[in-house]
Amino acid sequence: METLTCQACGQRFLPRFYCPDAKVESRHAFVPSSILVDNAGAVYTFCPEHTFTTYALVTDEKPRPQPVLLDTLLRRLDSFAFRLAIEIEGLRWRFFSRQ
Predict the structure, then answer these.
(1) Staple 56 to which of 4, 18, 35, 86, CB 3.0 to 4.6 Å?
(2) Contacts of 13 (CB under 8 A, 6+ apart)
(3) pLDDT band at residue 91 using 50, 70 and 90 as cut-offs
(4) CA dihedral 88, 94, 95, 98 (to 10 degrees)
(5) DSSP labels for 15-65?
(6) How far apart are alpha carbons 31 and 14 in whole angstroms?
(7) What is the pTM assigned to this prediction?
(8) Residue 48, C-beta contacts closer than 8 angstroms, at least 6 positions apart
(9) What is the pLDDT of residues 6-22, one digit of tens each?
């Protein structure tokens, strides 16, 4: 089984696909044995039962957790501290390079 990695958070997941399409009432969900990417960058696979090519990913039925205010503040504070350290180092470098 191949897994995909989220580019935003780095978490790995195992996608499921619909065969033949998400809009068809007689569709079924399956876990693919291989995941392919076409020339346009879209992810697709083949249904093992019907040999259809499908691009229809199954959506997650569970709601995604909302970001917690504390996590957002800590992430911004960490980013601010990093940028401040870079700025201070630049000022220090300019000060000592003049002497």
Answers:
(1) 18
(2) 3, 4, 5, 6
(3) very high
(4) 170
(5) --EEES-TT-TT-EEE--S--EE-TTS-EEEE-TTT--EE--BPPP-SPPP
(6) 8
(7) 0.48
(8) 30, 32, 33
(9) 778 888 877 888 888 77
